[in-house]
Amino acid sequence: MKVPQAELMSDVLKRLTGESALPVYCSIEKFKRGREGLYFVAEDFNETVKKRELVNAKERQRIRNLNTMFAG
After folding, report:
1. Residues sharing a CB contact under 8 Å with residue 33, sequence separation 6 or more, in sequence order
2. Least crowded by CB within 10 Å, which of 35, 60, 65, 67?
3. Quick check: is 37 in a domain?
4. Cα 72 → chain centroid
5. What mean pLDDT, rounded, does the chain reach?
6. How many domains, the chain?
7. 72 in any annotated domain
């Protein structure tokens, strides 16, 4: 019996859809436009990261609560 060669799921999805299913790094900085029309960073990067961590923790808790509700 011949076994097919191993391949990564991300490679399969990229071949089928043309897109990578893996996360891609992107900036999470927030910008505001000044009076002159130029953009500037609106808040400290560390503050933004803390906010994202808090929001992600709340979302995980919400999903846990939903799963508990449907399991019971």
Report:
1. 39
2. 35
3. no
4. 30
5. 86
6. 1
7. yes
